[in-house]
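User: hey, got a sec? need Cyanophycinase folded
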Amino acid sequence: MKKRISLFAAACLLISTVSIPAASANQVPANSIKGSLVITGGSLGSSNADVYQSFIKLAGGEKQAKIGIVPAASGKLKSSNDFKADLAKYGVKPENVEILPLSNHDFSDTDFDESMWKDNVNKKEWTDRVKNLSAIWFVGGDQLRITETLTDKKGKNSKVLDAIWTMYKEGGVVGGTSAGAAIMSDVMITGGDSLGGLRGEFTEKDEPQNKEYEKVFIKKGLGFFKYGIIDQHFDERARLGRLAAAAIKYEKRKDLYNSYGIDEDTALIVHNKERKAEIVGRGGVTVVDTSKAKLAGKKVHPVNNVSISFLSPGDEINLQTKEFTINPDKDATRGYEYYQFKPLDATGVLTPYGRLKPYLAYSLTDNSSADSVKSYLYDSKGKGYALTFSKTKSSNGYWGYMDGQKDDYSITNVRLDAVPVSVGFRKDKKAFKNYESSNFKVPDKAARGEILGNLVIAGGALGSSNEAVYKRFINFAGGNSKAKIGIIPAASGTLSSSNAFKNDLIKYGVKEDQIEILPISTHDFKGTAEDESKWKDNRNKEETAEAIKELNAVWFVGGDQTNITKALLNADQSESKALSAIWEIYKKGAVLGGTSAGAAIMSDVMIAGGGSLDTLSKGFTDTYNGMDQQEGGPGYLEKGLGFFQNGIIDQHFDNKSRLGRLIATAYEKGDRRQLSYGIDEDTAMVVNNKDQTVEVIGRAGLTVVDLSKAERQKGQFKNISISALSAGDIVDMKQKTFKISSHKDSTTGYEYGDFKAAPHTGVLTPHGTLKNYLSYNLVDNGGEKKVKSYAFNQDTGVELIFRKTADTEGYWGYKDGGKDDYSVTNVTLDINPVSVRMKY
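Assistant: Yep! Here you go:
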């Protein structure tokens, strides 16, 4: 029976019968350990050179390293064999890497019965073998399998575990990923989720979890990490609630130790001799400080006055003083905030920057207009918690660029408070009574005839290392030797993004004299001696047009899309000579590309501003006010350049959660016989005009919206078809069908999950992006036929119902080091206006 949540739910932590795990049997002072740890949050990509090379270096280097792999956590030997192959790829001799025969269960991909290996943990042969190693690696899977293999039923160490400790104390390195990270601390979090943690429900038993949330399952770990509690898969599975609650309950020395949540494809590297740790990889590490958290009481929830920090690669932690050293390439944002807008609460899949770290970075620490922001976490009955994240005197943000033009943030000392709340929703046809339809007049389509050129349209934040996108653009331009590329800088406020893109093209083999930054702009750029606002007349100069006609590729950089259209359209909205020249080369076979703003201009109807919830509920506006309109507010439309003839495009789609505004725009101003497309960051849709196909390339995905059967009445939408694609997938624009990458298998009839899914409610929802939420909770889950999300502001909002139909398909495969790679086709979406009631 479910416990009721009330204002006294905090007491759950006090009355829980779960005992705190005993301290490690290895009573080893941290300062006596000469070895290091490489603790990886899961889904370690084979291409993540920083993590692999760090582990190998600590193990003695490519030539000297002697590494043992412990396969016990997994159900197969495949992950161990894959890790061994990856080590060889990074230079370690195969004969110096050994998969140790340590397991308490059989593996499904071999003929041998590996459960017979259980006795090896106390055999001298394997104890001596481990003592001669310089490194141990624990693969992922089930962390209980590791502890049950290496200790007896009373928790006593096996001889092999003692040998691992000896190696570690004398200077060896111990590493692991996923389950291999969970075992690193004395207190081992074995299961559970954030809602279970906030409810204060803990268990030491491996029991079935049939609820929409899971109790936090605590067992004794192996204790290699001496400075707090470790959690893993942290960002993707939104585990802040469970780690904070576990730290408050189980960490005895809160004054000395923080707790650490490690993201996927990321490592916390611990140097015990120096008592410091560094962050390496592609994600981040969340640091949870519960030293000032108030004890549970009748009026105070235990997750109260918790300090959270988010560290990124290049940042360091002093494990003795708990101080942070932020990557010196970043600048502090406090007092120099870039953003000034009022952020909406984080309430579901329509929340801009809907994952926790981006939400706090953009909406709080780098936003001078907000001192606190709020999110929610609740079950399908609306019982849950309101989460308030606040700036304190010691809060700060740190910003820099990473890998091209991607924002890279670190955040320190944001306060988290959780308060029990009951949220109720009621369908309300009058909720959007002030909705304003768009007055934008869709331009008549010009008869362009046959177009031989192609498009490479990137969703923003294109990484310099995104080889697939750069190479496709260059290949369409004739290859490195024949490419003649013009860069249009008009969208940006500086020339830095144009120069950066030029340098990236050179890095990929294009000669500098084959690339030109075209003098097209209506405004001055910061940081240059020239006044580029004088370029505004260049758009109608023959000299400019003739220079364009010599090109076979044009790229539009990001910034403000209205600056591009101002620079290439005349005051009467007719084509300038420069734009006509671009069209001429495009029709003859040139490739056009762009990122962010350079993607928005590609369709006839250009989405220039607005947020998802505001556009669905308030409609559209005829005015544009820059940043506020970029980050939210009603939708704002302008005439685009129309290079993409097959629908409407939106960009920054995953990070800014723009599904709502794309649906509203396409329904009002699009041709509903055509598909509409939302492109994620660091991803491109490649348009082949001859074949009438779109291919997805890059690191994230493409959302495809089909409104051909959709209906709308008083703000209520029915029968919207949503598909979420990833790299290698292809769309047939004429037939409106999908060809999914051959490395994926259909999940229909073979669903991995079988559980009841809680609604998507905010930044602590697991698998928080739209595609992943639909993948894990709906199409690869036999336990659900529909899932919900809510987006609301104060007392009005929308209910999103995503439904399986006979046409719905899910597809799953692996990518780069064991990461789940999903595609979803033809999920039906209904949108209902709702009124919201909240009771604290």
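Quick note: The domain at 454-676 is CATH 3.40.50.880 (Rossmann fold). Let me know if you need anything else on Cyanophycinase.
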